[in-house]
Every structure is written in C-alpha cells, then in structure tokens.
Amino acid sequence: MARTESNMLPLGTTAPHFSLPDTVTDKVLDLADVSGDNGTVVMFICNHCPFVKHVNAEIVQLAKDYKGKKIGFVAISSNDIENYPEDAPDKMKINARENGFLFPYLFDETQEVAKKYDAACTPDFYIFDRQLKLVYRGQLDDSRPGNNIPVSGKDIRNALDALLSNKPVTKEQKPSIGCNIKWKP
Fold first, then answer.
1. What pTM, to 2 d.p., does this model score?
2. Contacts for 109 with CB less than 8 Å, ≥ 6 apart
3. What pLDDT does residue 2 have?
4. β-strand partners of 41
5. 28, 43, 53, 130, 141 from 179: Cα distances, Å
6. Of 14, 63, 111, 172, which is most buried with the most CB atoms under 10 A?
7. What kind and span of H or E run contains 34?
8. Could you count the other beta carbons within 10 Å of the beta carbon of residue 127?
C-alpha cells in the first residue's frame, strides 16, 4: 500500500473551476452546482484505495452533519480507469450507493481537475470558504488503516466549525496520506 502525501495547495487559492459528470445522477455538474453558501468541501477519492475505504463512513457522516449548515460536499475520482478498472464510472455509481454518499461523485476522466487542485493522493481534502478561497487542505484526521486511531474527522470538523463561526482556520495543517492518484501514462 503506497503512502503518498498531499501536495498542500497554498492557502488562499481560489477553487479551480470544473465541470464533470456525476456518476450517480448522470448529470454534468460544475463548481457552482456543488458549492455551499457557507463553504465547500472538495474530496479526491476513489473506489479501491484502502485509505479511502477506511474513512468512507466518516465522510458520509460529515456530509450529514454539515449539509444543514450550508456546506457543500463533492467527491471526485481522477484515477486512470484503463489500468484501474475498479475505479470506472459504473463502479463509482455502485460504490456511492453502497456507501450512502449524500454528495455527488464526479469522474475526472482527463485528470485535468486533479492537476488544477494539485491533488496527489486519495483521500485528499480541500475546504473553501464562502468566496471559494482555500482555508484548509490536508488530512481528515490522524487515523490510518492499521494504526488503531479511531476515525473521527477531527481536522476537517475543526476547520469547518471555525469557518462557520467566522474564526480563522488554523494554518497548522497536516497533509493527507493515501494511495497516489493513478495518473495516465
């Protein structure tokens, strides 16, 4: 299991625009469609990564806990499906339903969106404020498969709570660690 860290896009970066197909609804959605009035969480995930499987239940719980607070959530998979067919859109749809995703699960076939966000691993998390400026990027929490630390989502929750309270989000942020994005040759 490869361990790749986030690249840590500079704080204050404006959320890069995207327009991608949602594998659940078969509709094309863009950044404006998924943004929340109070903030937006963009997650790069995939189906097969053990690091993502480890946190799927918590990201669903996060969406449940913060959707009513007008935080938008979106997940994007950018993996090369030729070499990783388990991450193909038809399987993304199944995965989203099996895990009870309450957010769109978009497919980035060209991998251009992952490149714009400087995404490096799955899972990789980004939180943008009301003006779509980056206030957090990095890990969900300290839990990893096999380290016996419970999955809590504390780093994302702390950032979202600060954002919702109009307080500064701490600049001390740890990179996420997961499987590398499976880039096309």
1. 0.97
2. 81
3. 67
4. 73, 127
5. 27, 14, 11, 30, 16
6. 63
7. helix 31-34
8. 24
